[in-house]
């Protein structure tokens, strides 16, 4: 096997150390960073971790391009920069030197691609410089670049990421406008999160997404209850008050939030609503939240636009999840209670966790499949309860679907169907959940993230009366909502 001759892309100074090679004869196995984008090249565009001895063994199976004997020689590291290495392989027979550059250079910089990739990986995995060092140590790889340069590279990456992020979000806004028929008014979904669990998180993040057929992020923001730079400069406050003042006025302070961590989400979402006009020249007219009533209330109480009353739309996933939370709550409350049939609430053949999750899925499915037909949505939501609550004496499958209801299928085939009545005592308990959820489902606009704006369904005055007349515990819904809001323990939006 003969190695391919190619010109080195390294500066002359690298080769000057080697007396027996001139630049033209230097072989390099390096792919140039800006090399052609042939398919074949793309296929080879990846890294491989190889043990050094394997590489030497490979070389020993090839012929030296200079003396034509089997290569046998030594390898020496000429330069190392983080994970990047420049290695020289010298043929001991003719002293010809072959160069290997383990990673290409990023154009117009002195940085090596592999080191930038390492830092991106570190950021994505939440590893600091020290963490990356341990990780590489465990793999018997060389350590990363020194901490100072590591931080500088993070800034380098940050600049690129910010630029790409802004371009991507602007494109997503325009895409949503086109899909909405050119109107510069959008329905957006939003959610916030804390990087750490618990109400004491000092940082919060939030994002707004479009509600197009392919939802994309339109805007993001963050809150911080502390500034590491301010904390670092605290010693200056008394030692050198003048310098401290100059620092205070000139640094890019990260402290931008003073309230409770629980209130971060509503303020962050509000901030993004307020800047939609100056930033994108658009208005967000409807908001799909995660069921946290505080956000919508805040948006209404502090209007971002003088002429828009922001509508609230609930997100199917969170909506269904809330039903699961309520079933679980009832299950927990009744864990040791013996019901009127002499059995417990939960257990085999009764209300199990798996059964509760199934109900959540059925409910979300009912919403998604009937989002454009309010009456059907109401019936299908109730069908979940009625179907499972049916007995041989009192079958209630009138709102069921032949596709999944075994009773309707049996009846259609002229067969007799036997109900398992052992579950009904559980479902008496569950009825309360079902009722309030069904009421909520039919009186709130609901969206699923894959639907477009036209599909959002809003209840009008007439059908509201029809639907709510038999929902005797409709009032319960509001208090249930409050309980739910108090229940969540680690995210501002109540997501889990
Ligand atoms: Zn040789
Ligand atoms: Zn600061
Ligand atoms: Zn049925």
TrEMBL record:
Domain of life: Eukaryota
Feature: compositional bias, Low complexity: 440-450
Positions with biased composition (Acidic residues): 477-496
Chain ranges of the Mutator-like transposase domain: 50-405
Disordered: annotated segments: 1-30, 440-496
Pfam families: Mutator
Record-given protein name: Mutator-like transposase domain-containing protein
Native organism: Rotaria sordida
